[in-house]
Amino acid sequence: MAYRMKNLLQIFLRQHGPAANHLVKLNRLLLTALCSLSLAGCSTLTEVKLYDGPPQDPSRIARLYLDPHVAVTDVDDIRTHPTDKSRVLAHSAGKRREYISLAPGLHSLHAHFFVLCLRSEGAFPLQFNAEPGKKYRLKSSVDARLQKWRPEIVEFDGTEVESDFPWMKAMCPPDVTVFILRR
């Protein structure tokens, strides 16, 4: 098939001359740009399954969706990702979003915000009672001075949560020491 396409392309280029060669290059460039743009706008939603047994119908489990820039380090003393032991249990960053599937019942978890200079405010572990078929959101609230982060678990309607956090304003002030070396 690839050989036939190559032959057809060569015949087309011979019949239509150098202008056709530019047209083929332009089409390749447009196709690449179109694919890139279509992928750039998409969020990736990934499940982190933390209940025993085979996959369950969503009406039988609870789902905890993570706000952008939030990492969950443990749920009910589970500290490692089920399929990748080298990473944090669950997190959402950029266009990558994760949600945790849980059995119904009382759960406790620890979480943090990605910006290390923000102090977490509130009681840890966070505890909540997950009901079957319900969606929850680990919501991140940051104070106006961008110094404290307060996590909260609320019921969730499933709408897209956009990240509008001002990263540049919340970064740690640099601690730089300059040494002048002379000969």
Structure keywords:
single chain, 183 residues, alpha/beta, 6-stranded mixed sheet, 4-stranded antiparallel sheet, 3 helices, 23% helix, 32% strand
Oligomer: single chain
Estimate the helix proportion, in percent: 10-25%
Number of distinct beta strands: 10
H/E series: HHEEEEEEEEEEH
Strand arrangement in the largest pleated sheet: 1-5-2-9-10-7
Gyration radius, in Å: 25 Å
Q: Mind summarizing the main beta sheet?
A: 6 strands, mixed
**Broad shape:** flat
Count helical runs.
3
What structural class results from the helix and strand content?
alpha/beta
Rounded mean pLDDT is 76
Residue fraction in strands = 25-35%
Low-confidence parts = 33-41
Distance between the termini: 69 Å
What would you note in describing this structure?
The protein is α/β, with parallel strands linked by helices. 23% of the residues lie in helices and 32% in strands. It is built from 3 helices and 10 strands, in the order H-H-E-E-E-E-E-E-E-E-E-E-H. It has helices at residues 2-16, 18-40, 167-170; strands spanning 44-49, 62-66, 70-75, 90-92, 96-102, 105-113, 119-120, 126-130, 135-142, 148-155. The strands form 2 sheets. Strands 1-5-2-9-10-7 form a 6-stranded mixed beta sheet, with no helix packed on it. Helix 1 (2-16) crosses helix 2. The longest helix is centred in the first third of the chain and has 23 residues, at 18-40. The protein is flat. The termini are far apart. Mean pLDDT is 76; it is low at 33-41.
